[in-house]
What does this fold into?
Amino acid sequence: MIKKIWLNFQLYLLFFLFTCVYTPLLAIIVIGARPFIGKRRMMKLFRFVIAFYGKIVIRVLPWLWVKVSFNDREPQLTPPYIVICNHRAASDPFLMAVLKHETVQVVNKWPLRLPLLGLMGRLSGCLSVNEMPYADFNAKVKMLLEEGVCVAAFPEGTRSGSRQMGQFHGAMFRIAVEAGVPVVPMVITGNEDKPKKGTLWLEPGVICVEKLPALTAQDYHNKNAFCFKNQVRDIIASQIQKVER
Amino acid sequence: MTEADAKRMVNEVFTESFEIEPARLVPEAHIFNDLGLDSLDIVDLVVALQKKFSVTIRNDERVRNIRTLGDIHNFIIALGQEGQLDKKA
It folds into this structure.
């Protein structure tokens, strides 16, 4: 127990220090580059440095006791695409750093209200699905996809905090059906206690992230958004069952 | 239209438009938590019910109080009793 307390203390201390050092660096990079590059390239750069921050947070800071294993079952997939993940814990948004392409996340209200992290999220274009009408959300996601940016979402809408998966909201699936872009189911297991919902306490262990093969427009052209979302949910649920049985 | 017909036709809307297995279509099923519909799906559901029963329900205040499949059954049965449903339905 004392070891766990020490490891948690160590991780949060490193996390705090790294964030305090990295954020001003991020600001310098972005402000320094702004006069020389256009807005689109600027956003790409900004998202790249944020993804790098995420990689450090998930791969380096907790390396002594929380390992992240990533399996990309379709590495040749090219953007844009929509990533659909199950959602167990607050570590999930950080885990999106495993994705190699420029990605914007769809988040709830509260992560964008966090100090520093929330600001980074807003500046990188994270979409707060509950803070805008569906029509605006739809238009923004489609604009990102047209720019070649991937969009990652957690359609359960909130952390399950357990191995149970909630019902999916259909907004992203409606957009996918309209835009005809590939949808990538991504399965995250092992992080229901990293941290446990309602606490900051992390348990040691391995988090497995598995990016499954994409479903293309041809795979879902005869389905409406509701049926498609249930198909994706079934794929994720089935993979979770395989991993955790 | 009998009450049984109304229930059967409502259930058909769920199986045809949402591909929900008939076994899950019990009156106590919550349309959000158990059947997995969300607020956007409700719009599709209303459209599908309107088409199935040839009736306009989108402005009916009672729609707002619907929570379960049983509530939809009762709502449609009530519309039938009020003579609002198309006789061909």
About this structure: The mean pLDDT of chain A is 91.
